[in-house]
Every structure is written in structure tokens, then in C-alpha cells.
Amino acid sequence: MSHPSPAMLSDADHDRVSAAVSSAEGASAGEIVTILTDRSDGYTDVALAWAAFAAFTALVVLSLFPAFYLGLFDRVAGTWASEWTSREVFALAATVAMLKFLGTLLIQLWQPLKFFLVPPPVKSGRVRGRAVTCFKVGAERRTHGRTGILIYLSMREHRAEIVADEAIASKVAPEVWGEAMAAMLAELRRGNVADGVIAAVERVGAILAQHFPRHENDVNELPDRLIEV
What we know:
Blueprint: H1 11-25, E1 31-37, H2 44-64, H3 66-77, H4 86-107, H5 111-116, H6 120-138, E2 148-154, E3 159-164, H7 166-171, H8 178-189, H9 193-211, E4 226-228
Parallel strand pairs: 1-2, 1-4
Antiparallel strand pairs: 2-3
Helix pairs in contact: 1-9, 2-4, 8-9
């Protein structure tokens, strides 16, 4: 039976974010959804790629300097300049490659190193993909005027995304959200996660109020609470 992961923010922080969303939506017809996640992907494929690269590199080095490494093995094993057969050489090469592969996988169990080794473009692409998926599941076309917008924050990758529904995207260019992203990142750099989300909500709310003013009969169609996944 799986257990839920501990919350990244306190109940008080959740209440503050919810209040900020409610306040921002009070002046516009937009619906703001906030999602906070520990990571957007496990990057198992990247870890396997690094392990395969380490194994391949070991084989290349062994093939370039066979005498040195075979002599080194003899010294470590305490043998006297063994006459290596082809089978023994291939067995040694396979063993070295396997050990390099497994060793590289094992050291990547330390999460800071694993995420450090993920190329930045891969991180950005995976975070964007997860944000779009979350938006499609939780916000896209779920409002009457298609005015849903997602503020998505992925902690381990140090990435954030803002994804808007059709009506918003048709009137607001993607670069307009840069101010909201900058305000959020400024707080995140100071270690204030909740304040970062709130800053983004306030900036997004101001933009929505400008382009999509609230109607008298407007109803709250999406949850105001911060979602942790």
C-alpha cells in the first residue's frame, strides 16, 4: 500500500495561496489553478543513458590500452604476467562494462547528482510536458469561457510554467507572463515557495483583470486551493 508524500507547504501557506487565488479571481473572469510538485519526471531514461555511456567509455579505453589494463589486473590479482586468451579478454571487458554500468546507476540514486546530470533542455521539456498534461486534465476547457490558466512549479528541476486556455492565449502573448514568472522566481531564490506562488498569482490576476474583467454572474468553476502532486 502506497503512502502519500508529505506536503511541501504548511496548511497556513496553503490557505494564503488559496486566498490569493480567490482575490485575483475576484477581479476577473479568469480561473487560476496552482500546482506544486516535487519533480515532473523520474528521468530513468537519462540515468540509463549515462550508465550506458560509462560502460561504452570503459570498453573504448580498454580497447585502446589493453596492455596497460591487463597488466594492471595482473598486479591487482597478484598474478605473473598472465597469457590472456581471447575468451578471458572478452570476459574481462564484459565484466568491466557491467560494473561501470551498475556503478553509474547506483551513484545516481543520490538525487542531487541524478538531477544535476539531466541536461537543462531535457528538464525544461519534461516540466513543460507535465504542466501541459496537468492543464489538460484539470483546467483546459473546463470553464464556460475557456479562461482557465495554470501556474505550475516543479521544485527539483527549478522550473515553472504558465499554461493558458484558448480564450486567454488568443488575447495574451506568452511573453506577457514573463513578469509573473520573474516575480515568482525572485521569491523562490529567497526560499519563499508560498510567497513565490502568491506573487505569480497576483501578477497573473492583474493581467486577467485587464483582458477578462469579471461579470456580475461569474461563478467559481475551478478550485482555488494549491494542488500538490
